Hints:
Elements: H1 2-14, H2 33-38, H3 44-50, H4 58-65, H5 74-77, H6 90-93, E1 117-119, E2 122-126, E3 129-133, H7 152-155, H8 163-171, E4 177-181, H9 190-201, E5 208-212, H10 215-218, H11 225-233, E6 237-242, H12 252-263, E7 266-273, H13 282-294, E8 298-303, H14 318-331, E9 339-342, E10 351-352
Parallel strand pairs: 3-4, 4-5, 5-6, 6-7, 7-8, 8-9
Antiparallel strand pairs: 1-2, 2-3, 9-10
The structure holds pyridoxal-5'-phosphate and iron/sulfur cluster (SF4).
Pyridoxal-5'-phosphate (PLP) is lined by residues 123, 125-126, 129, 131, 179, 349-350.
Catalytic activity: L-lysine = D-beta-lysine
Keywords: 4Fe-4S, Iron, Iron-sulfur, Isomerase, Metal-binding, Pyridoxal phosphate, S-adenosyl-L-methionine
Family: Belongs to the radical SAM superfamily. KamA family.
Amino acid sequence: MIAATLHADQLIPQFDATSLDSPAQTVPHEPGWQQLLADAVTDPRELCTLLELDPDLVLPAIAAAKDFALRVPRSYVARMRKRDPNDPLLLQVLPIAAELQVTEGFVSDPVGDMNRRAAQGLLHKYQGRALLVATGACAVHCRYCFRRHFPYAEESALQQGWQPALEHLRADPTISEVILSGGDPWSLSDRRLKQLTDGLQSIPHIRRLRIHTRYPIVLPERVDLGLLEWLHGVPLQKVVVIHANHAREIDEAVRQACRRLTGAGVTLLNQGVLLAGINDSVAALVELSEALFETHVLPYYLHVLDKVQGAAHFDLPEARALELHRELTARLPGYLVPKLVREVAGAPSKTAVVGAVD
Length: 358
Ligand SMILES: *Cc1c(COP(=O)(O)O)cnc(C)c1O
Ligand code: SF4
């Protein structure tokens, strides 16, 4: 197994994917990522059965999933421990009763993104960078996501064939980096992605393409030859910011996907969210940084939770977040310490968490 893996990986960088009619030809018996995506677990009953969990979890899960559906790829479920209701991967995706509680200060659009629309699906909040909502779809539904109440499907730039977004980008020479976000931009087909990057490439002041995606973590099969071929063909500097919150999310398939991305000339960064019950210990955060680095990914941001309705049970007191971050700083080389940040509506950048400002 290991030898075969190494062999396949070594082939990737010099592999001429353009000689293939279809990437599927190389792995004729394995389902493609779209199939795996369609096959994700969406029924709380099934998730509880697969993991041999207490059936009492099912009804609350069904109730909470009405608001924001359960969705989790099977290969991610396979990384969870059976019979463990506190598994750090499970807690990220299982709907629970606490989501239905209304908590003061937790709102539906905590980031205030709606006010920063520069064109259909384009948010221009920070100097030099514009964020393009490429699609509303994600491979996984993370229960703490600040987008859980957001009408992203209607907001995506694809809706109008990218044109209004591309026109805004073309007209503003101060923008040098375009960030594809969502939703998850890699939910789009390679063909759609290429349409977009063909448009971006024709704008001389765009130098960098950044992609915010959870696919390499939750459905690493997405990083297939078609995707690599597309990336190889984009002449911009490429940064992919993945989203892992726990070292146990990173298995051999994830490492392989990351190696392929690095092989395609991509710089890999990680952004995580500090989540009560999931990664709120120094040990968990140290392990995460180390596991990322073994995979050639540098920790970039550790976000404190956006105060979105239904996610209050993941929140930590700010003093605890700071204490964890200070200990992390003491324990790790500087390059393995992510910046602890929060999103402040109207601020010119992500805001470092430095003391009590609440
Ligand atoms: C987070 C974010 C960015 C990127 O910020 P960086 O600090 O460059 O990572 C850009 N635009 C928007 C709207 C964002 O929310
Ligand atoms: S993948 Fe990202 S955008 Fe999608 S639900 Fe998870 S955190 Fe939210």
